[in-house]
Amino acid sequence: xxxxxxxxxxxxxxxxxxxxxxxxxxxxxxxxxxxxxxxxxxxxxxxxxxxxxxxxxxxxxxxxxxxxxxxxxxxxxxxxxxxxxxxxxxxxxxxxxxxxxxxxxxxxxxxxxxxxxxxxxxxxxxxxxxxxxxxxxxxxxxxxxxxxxxxxxxxxxxxxxxxxxxxxxxxxxxxxxxxxxxxxxxxxxxxxxxxxxxxxxxxxxxxxxxxxxxxxxxxxxxxxxxxxxxxxxxxxxxxxxxxxxxxxxxxxxxxxxxxxxxxxxxxxxxxxxxxxxxxxxxxxxxxxxxxxxxxxxxxxxxxxxxxxxxxxxxxxxxxxxxxxxxxxxxxxxxxxxxxxxxxxxxxxxxxxxxxxxxxxxxxxxxxxxxxxxxxxxxxxxxxxxxxxxxxxxxxxxxxxxxxxxxxxxxxxxxxxxxxxxxxxxxxxxxxxxxxxxxxxxxxxxxxxxxxxxxxxxxxxxxxxxxxxxxxxxxxxxxxxxxxxxxxxxxxxxxxxxxxxxx
Amino acid sequence: xxxxxxxxxxxxxxxxxxxxxxxxxxxxxxxxxxxxxxxxxxxxxxxxxxxxxxxxxxxxxxxxxxxxxxxxxxxxxxxxxxxxxxxxxxxxxxxxxxxxxxxxxxxxxxxxxxxxxxxxxxxxxxxxxxxxxxxxxxxxxxxxxxxxxxxxxxxxxxxxxxxxxxxxxxxxxxxxxxxxxxxxxxxxxxxxxxxxxxxxxxxxxxxxxxxxxxxxxxxxxxxx
Lengths: 502, 224
What we know:
The complex is a heterodimer. Chain A folds into two domains: 3-55 and 357-500, no CATH class; 60-349, no CATH class. Helix content of chain A is 51%, strand content 14%. Chain A has helices at residues 3-16, 18-53, 70-79, 99-106, 114-121, 212-220, 243-247, 255-258, 279-285, 294-303, 307-316, 334-343, 351-394, 396-404, 409-449, 465-491, 495-500; strands at residues 62-66, 126-132, 134-141, 144-153, 168-169, 179-183, 226-232, 260-271, 290-293, 323-328, 347-348. In chain A, strands 3-4-9-6-8-7 form a six-stranded mixed barrel. In chain A, strands 2-10-1-11 form a four-stranded antiparallel sheet. In chain B, helix 4 (117-130) crosses helix 5. The A-B interface holds A 1-2, 4-5, 12, 16, 397-398, 400-411, 495-496, 499 and B 51, 54, 56-57, 76-77, 80-81, 83-85, 89, 91, 95-97, 99, 108-109, 111-114, 117, 156-157, 159-160.
């Protein structure tokens, strides 16, 4: 008897009990739908974080670096070992090192200053190093004032943090020019009332859809516009002066006397808006909606640093940058560069390791969600077992007849296994289809009401092909497991007793 | 050499807390091409003996042989092959699968034997023609008379060209006309070279059609 014969026999048997088979398959469908919806939600989260956010940050050629914190530098200075390279273990140190000590040794031992940056740049395979220089300032534009974060950016437009092209305008003319490069949404930051932050979450409604030419045209209109940054005057102490006078503008009292300085910057370039949820770009690369030349940024940061930072600088001298991003020419070199930087006494962060960690976490989340859905499928599997056991009771005589005319135990088992697998496959396909429809509806509804309509911003539920195949395959596999006992029982039917069975 | 050979066969069943002895040392030799009728009252052990010949059951002690080969050492799959290839069984209550048509019932036995699908239909139709039911092949058992159902059962038993037909009260549910038809059919099968073992309690029919009658009483062979 061929597999096709067994299949047709199984199909015929299911047709004999349509309602029961349909109800059992529906149970499987519900279980599969639960798995598909749960896992697709987890995968949606993963996709949004990894694909939308991390993928924009080139993790394979990028190594974020940090130096020692001020407190650690003070501690090292106190112990007189500030310059000790981390790999130089004390003589006679035990060969086996405790994890705690290993962690201590992995801590940066020196500031991430210009000297350290130069040393990193000297490592073979390093393309360029972008120190992170960010600060907050009061920004006046279009008659409105906002407190905004600014970042220092390099002269080379290809090295701008968070982007790689200018929509309009040109790069900075020099490191100390009073020039700004802004994002195309810069004007929008000033369009709302001061008490309301412009939306910046992934759920933010999108602006009107513009084509490339319209975006370039809109960006060009920002060029040469003046922007005023209100900063503490170099050499003045925080808290002195009267900010109200400075804010009043050219007509009011001289800002210099107030300890504040009005610096007029000109927008020279416009870059595309940072994608929604570009947290890594903002946090690690130090990108912002407003960028000033790196030299200017250093000056602002120095002048406007907080009291503790000033104290640190007074005690230690240059405390360096909080972080920098090292760009490597070849992904194959990234691991070696990462190790070289750590040897310099700085801390390099391996984003690929972080990515693996994130993926592991998502694997656990998805497995937990699948387990929840799996409970529904487990209940459905009990339904399959029940259906088949009832079927055996009803068909005992038929099984006896098959055995009496030469049907083997394996063939009898095969019929029941295939019946179960058919139920699993039908239920699995149905459940996947319904799960897909539910996911699609949920995506639509969430994007419409949370996202504010228009083009869907976020795919909250993500169903890759392997989820389809996996869910249907899993349902079929579970069905086979559920059929094991009934099929075995069918094969063990005594033909003589079965033939007497009514 | 006997085609079917029972040697000192004892068959005991456990019934509740007691043991019932269905066969108490039966020896019976059936030659190829013979038509043997096994007579006896209800509970005499005749159906039990037929089931042992058919490999549906195993003796408690003693031995059953088919063409000189003992069935005792055969595994369950090997006994299934014995039922499939060597013997064909016919039952009092026909035992056709109710949801299958006449030809499908026959084709099922052919499918178990691994006959190709296209060949099954052709052979099933030929067998139905052989038992006089060429025009009833697409009918389900419920649409056939008792005699017709038994003829389908005989056609199914012949499907894989067995050397022996084992018929357990094949006329038990039929009127005398249909009973005579069925036994004539079995007689014709004997003419085609098959060995026929008929279990019945009808002495007249047995004496009319069988070459030899064997009487069982209380699990033992007695004088006819």
